[in-house]
Design goal:
The complex is a heterodimer of chains A (623) and B (189). Helix content of chain A is 64%, strand content 1%. In chain B, 35% of the residues are buried. Classes of the chains: A mainly alpha (623), B mainly alpha (189).
């Protein structure tokens, strides 16, 4: 039965939850406490429930049996049933991530629409102030999860093994585990309203996050679990890129998207542990009676901000590095030119990884941190603009004098450049202490990070989805609707967010449901633009869903691209390539005479019958 | 088309080497968790250290844990040389020493509840740090016990002992983490 693994997971999870919370109650009695404490019991119950869910959904059958000397069960389902089980195929896992996070993104989008509805006029309109705070917080954490995991988890899982000519990732079962801890995260976050929600924003600063409604505890459990997934995913990508490359795939021949995933994985493997501890310390303050953030006992809320941002600033590079990778990949293929300054870009990625650990305290300029820390963190933050500038110059050099093939993915990649430029330049005002003191916690900040993450990363995500959709599904979407979606999103996006800079400069505070009446006009304008922006995503859904069900066959290589994922059928077979590919040259040497990227032998073919990769001559097609 | 020479020089890692790399990456990641923990102690408490800490007990459980790493190493070496009996004995000794350590931490907690309970500044750090470390010890004991049970059923041999190696490496890591935690809690002034 198709749903058996899910039902077993839910059943085992429920048993685990009851077992854990019962155990928690017993422990409380033996310690002389009142056995009934919803939060403490939920925490213990959740830990057992999570283990039960994972065992039930497939860890027991495919993995844990081996720990007890039993043979693991193998066997893959076919068709859509694959997506409902503990599949170890990286392509299935990639699609699971993409679909899951697309749904999460739509939920987060609905919350954004509700927030904009509330902000259409000053004063209370459609919801209470507390409901607004809860909606704002939930929107934040859902979208942060999308930003962290949609490109790496979705596109990264599907494409990294293909791009490096491997059969799968280094640890396929661990990969499946990284995905299957995500559904509990989503369920916990969606259950928060039942326990009073959480009104602390996605950053959950104490002391508020220690004393507010019990929904905060669910948020903490969800975020910690999500971090677990992120760490294991990063570990897997690092090992995969180091160890699973096809013959001839040297480090200097790696497609730039693979480099970007590798760089982002270095951050998620390490920095994530800091946020895990930050959240755990708040959880302990809530349920175990510690006093990390109780100033009367020597606690200090600034500790949380340091720990939190030591992860959460690098986390924006976990979001944006893969976006750089997608954008450069798409720009090179559709400019039909070699990627400009490839080695400088790789160096820039690594420089971003290194610098990302040295900038966190720029989030604390107004928090009461010691003054002498302002200057060094301002300098390190501004240094980041050097490597990101290199990436930007590389993208300009790549399209420079190219004969651009303006397909939907290419348009989104160009849109990424436009938006990210605005996001980058406005960031300077927030990095500079004197201006940041005034702009902190205003809509200027909201506009800035939405420009980098939505205008930047989400545009790159969409570029990637449109670019690889034919490979993922074997079908082609409507190019006309795709282009319409692009222009719709680009215009609606900019019309929504540019005015937020202005509103912020005029004193509009972030995270507040109400504002002074003279800002009513601009807010009404932003809200209407936001509704138009939200509607554009329905167009994409319709386009892609229709194409997936009954779109025309895309063929193996609709873009005539050279990299390895296009040298196998669409969608690729379980083993990815009919025979192990041999990499013989750089990935983007379009137009370089005699250049080739890879040789992929056809199934059962003799030595002479090789499939040629994309044409060496520049091709300029219009659809 | 002929494959270029560097392609032939490529080495695809063995499963064993890949597993080893995966474990080292995991331990690197864990290091960051303990780094967050240790830096929090200095951030909140500076070098403050209550006089009521039981130094004898702290030193005692440190010695017990260090000894357990020795027996764990011996267990790994024994199976690598095909000595099943020595492997089983040393593994059992490691588990026993690990349990002794947990008992020591429990005794330490009993005293700590009186002198610096979890809702005090130092208590927050002390209970969190020792608690998280004890959780690692318990999970290590669980893995070692599974390895022991598998070993009794005849799993592992000189040529195939990744399960033993992985468990023992993790155990060493937990030990090294304590080597940093112990001075952080008991020795700094």
């Amino acid at each position: 039965m198709a749903f058996a693994p899910l039902l077993r997971g839910i059943g085992f999870g429920a048993v685990g939850f009851l077992l854990g919370s019962g155990l928690g109650a017993i422990v409380r009695v033996t310690m002389g406490l009142d056995p009934w404490s919803a939060e403490a019991l939920v925490v213990v119950g959740y830990i057992f429930g999570l283990v039960g869910w994972l065992l039930g959904v497939g860890v027991w059958g495919t993995w844990a049996r081996e720990w007890f000397g039993l043979a693991a069960r193998r066997g893959e389902a076919q068709g859509w049933r694959r997506y409902l089980r503990f599949s170890t195929d990286h392509k299935v896992i990639g699609v699971q991530y993409l679909v899951t996070f697309l749904v999460v993104m739509l939920l987060g989008g609905v919350l954004a629409v509700l927030m904009r509805a509330e902000l259409m006029a000053p004063g209370k309109t459609i919801m209470t102030l507390n409901t607004y705070n809860n909606a704002m917080s939930l929107h934040g954490i859902l979208m942060v999860a999308v930003a962290v995991a949609a490109i790496i988890g979705g596109l990264g899982n599907f494409l990294v093994p293909l791009l490096i000519g491997a059969e799968d990732v280094a640890f396929p079962r661990l990969n499946a585990l990284s995905f299957w801890v995500i559904p509990p995260v989503a369920v916990l976050l969606l259950l928060t309203p039942l326990m009073g929600g959480f009104d602390s924003g996605w950053t959950a600063y104490p002391p508020l996050s220690v004393i507010n409604a019990q929904g905060q505890t669910l948020y903490l459990l969800a975020f910690i679990t999500f971090g677990f997934s992120s760490i294991l995913g990063g570990l897997n990508f690092i090992a995969t890129v180091i160890a699973m490359r096809a013959p001839g795939m040297t480090w200097s021949r790696l497609p730039i998207f693979v480099w970007s995933i590798f760089a982002a994985s270095l951050i998620s493997l390490t920095a994530t542990q800091f946020v895990a501890f930050a959240l755990l310390s708040v959880l302990l303050d809530r349920v175990a009676g510690t006093s990390f953030y109780d100033a009367t006992q020597g606690g200090n809320a600034l500790l949380y901000e340091h720990l939190f941002w030591f992860y959460s600033h690098p986390a924006v590079y976990i979001m944006i590095l893969p976006a750089f990778g997608v954008a450069l990949e798409v720009l090179a293929h559709f400019s039909r030119k070699p990627l400009f300054a490839y080695k400088w870009v790789v160096g820039a990625f690594m420089a971003v990884v290194g610098l990302s650990f040295l900038v966190w305290a720029h989030h604390l300029f107004t928090s009461g941190m010691s003054d002498f820390l302002h200057l060094p963190f301002m300098v390190t933050t501004e240094l980041i603009s050097i490597p990101t500038g290199i990436v930007f110059l590389s993208s300009l050099g790549t399209i420079w004098l190219g004969r651009l093939w303006l397909t939907t993915p290419m348009l989104f990649a160009l849109g990424f450049l436009f938006n990210f430029l605005i996001g980058g330049i406005t960031g300077i005002f927030l990095a500079d202490v004197p201006t940041d003191l005034h702009l902190q916690d205003t809509y200027f900040v909201v506009a800035h990070f939405h420009y980098t993450i939505v205008g930047g990363e989400v545009f790159a995500l969409l570029a990637g989805v449109y670019y690889w959709f034919p490979k993922l599904t074997g079908r082609m979407y409507s190019e006309r609707l795709g282009k319409l979606h692009f222009w719709w999103v680009l215009l609606a996006y900019n019309v929504t967010f540019i005015p937020m800079f202005w509103a912020g400069l005029h004193g509009m505070n972030r995270r507040v449901a109400d504002y002074s009446p003279e800002l009513g006009g601009i807010n009404l304008f932003i809200s209407i633009a936001a509704f138009v922006l939200a509607a554009s995503f329905l167009l994409m859904l319709v386009n892609l869903a229709r194409a997936w069900v009954r779109g025309p066959a895309a063929g193996a290589n609709p873009w005539k691209a050279r990299t390895l994922e296009w040298q196998t059928s669409s969608p690729p077979p379980a083993e990815n390539f009919p025979a192990e590919p041999q990499v013989v040259g750089a990935p983007y040497d379009y137009g370089v005479p005699g250049s080739r990227h890879a040789v992929v032998a056809a199934k059962g073919a003799s030595e002479g019958e090789e499939k040629r990769d994309g044409d060496a001559a520049p091709r300029n097609q219009e659809d | 088309m002929a494959v270029q020479p560097e392609a032939l020089a490529r080495h695809r890692l063995s499963r064993m080497a890949l597993n080893r790399m995966g474990l080292w990456l995991f331990l690197l990641s864990e290091t960051f968790f303990f780094a967050a923990l240790i830096s929090s102690r200095y951030y909140l408490q500076g070098l403050a250290r209550p006089e009521t800490l039981n130094q004898a007990l702290g030193l005692g459980i440190t010695m017990v844990l260090l000894l357990s790493s020795l027996s764990a190493y011996r267990a790994e070496t024994c199976i690598a040389h095909g000595d099943r009996k020595g492997f089983q004995q040393n593994l059992l000794a490691t588990i026993a020493l690990g349990l002794l350590f947990v008992v020591g931490v429990a005794m330490e907690w009993r005293e700590a509840f009186v002198h610096f309970p979890p809702n005090t500044g130092f208590g927050s750090i002390f209970f969190t740090m020792t608690g998280i470390h004890a959780f690692h010890v318990l999970s290590g004991l669980l893995v070692l016990t599974l390895v022991y049970m598998l070993g009794r059923r005849g799993h592992f041999s000189a040529g195939s002992s990744w399960g033993v190696e992985g468990a023992v490496k993790y155990w060493h890591f937990v030990d090294v983490a304590w080597v940093f935690i112990y001075p952080t809690l008991y020795l700094v002034t």
